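Local shape tokens:
==================
===
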Amino acid sequence: MTGGTVVVAGPTNSGNGAVDYAGTFEIDGGTFVATGASGMAQEPDEGSQAVIGISLGDTISAGTAITVTDAAGTVVASIDPAKETQTLVVSTPDLVEGDTYTVTFGGEVTGTDTFGLITEGTLTGGESAGTIEASLSPLAP
């Protein structure tokens, strides 16, 4: 992937994943966000653009915003998943490899909405789910 915007509302059955490929998934540009079941979770594994891939631990209900913010509190990406989800994969040009980002469930997110994805918005409230470091091969348990 070298540009554009891709939003994936993947399966809820853990026998499948929102991202599924044989070989490699190289990401060098664009905005990619995927949510879905955790059973066969994958994320981009090559390329020059940083990625956050995380297993959320619990199943998050459809309609509950999942937001990634940087150290300054700026929204990097917020997705309002169309289906319940257990994983989140995010890659945007705004992610910096090695920087730490906060993941928040719920709250109110404002900004431009593209298929349930908000970038460069603001987050008010919500429950912090912790932090994660952006890397080039990131899926965290």
